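pinned: reference chain
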Amino acid sequence: PGGLSSKLSDYFAGDLAIIETLPTATAGPPFQRQVWQALRDIPCGQVMHYGQLAEALGRPGAARAVGAANGANPVSIVVPCHRVIG
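pinned: its structure tokens
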């Protein structure tokens, strides 16, 4: 229901959860795509640190790599990079 424009309008009108229904097709190495998917799994209104996300991905020593992948996120509205902090 609703096209991309409609969903983005709903998002900017305050329906933050609608963003989770938008499909993404991003390039990038497998690890970056794994990080970007994990970003989408963080519930709206919650944040975590790079190290926590690295641990959740089964790579506890990869906090810096998670930070780099987060910074390389090409679609930061749809893939909420602001939910992970250094």
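why pinned: The helical segments are 4-12, 30-41, 50-56, 63-71. The first strand starts at residue 48 and ends at 49.
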